[in-house]
Amino acid sequence: MNTSSKVQWFPFLDFQGEPLPDGTTASYQELLPGSFATSAQAMAAAVAAIDQRPEAIGISVKRVEVHQ
């Protein structure tokens, strides 16, 4: 059986969570809409989105290999 794979990139906004009782803070990510063929395209989407969400503390992208 031949399978092929395709790489997709997904953009995220990074947020700082609430402080925990031990003094540490957990951060979390919010997945943005869309998947992209390149990391540059996903980063561009994240950069555009962070301008609309001033509470975000950063951006990131994740690479996913989709087997078909």
Describe it.
The protein is α+β, with helices and mostly antiparallel strands and 68 residues long. It has one domain (5-19, 26-67). The chain contains one helix and three strands; from the N terminus they run E-E-H-E. Strands 2-1-3 form a three-stranded antiparallel sheet. A hairpin with a 5-residue loop joins strand 1 and strand 2. The mean pLDDT is 93.
Low-confidence stretches: none
Assign the structural class, choosing from mainly alpha, mainly beta, alpha/beta, alpha+beta, or little secondary structure.
alpha+beta
Give Rg in angstroms. 15 Å
Please provide the ordered H/E string of secondary-structure elements.
EEHE
Overall morphology: flat
On the 0-100 scale, what is the average pLDDT?
A: 93
What's the helix and strand layout?
Elements (H helix, E strand, L loop, with lengths): L4 E15 L5 E7 L7 H12 L7 E10 L1
Antiparallel strand pairs: 1-2, 1-3
What's this model, at a glance?
The protein is of the alpha+beta class. It has one domain. It is built from one helix and three strands, in the order ββαβ.
Keywords, please?
68 residues; alpha+beta; 3-stranded antiparallel beta sheet; 3 strands; 18% helix
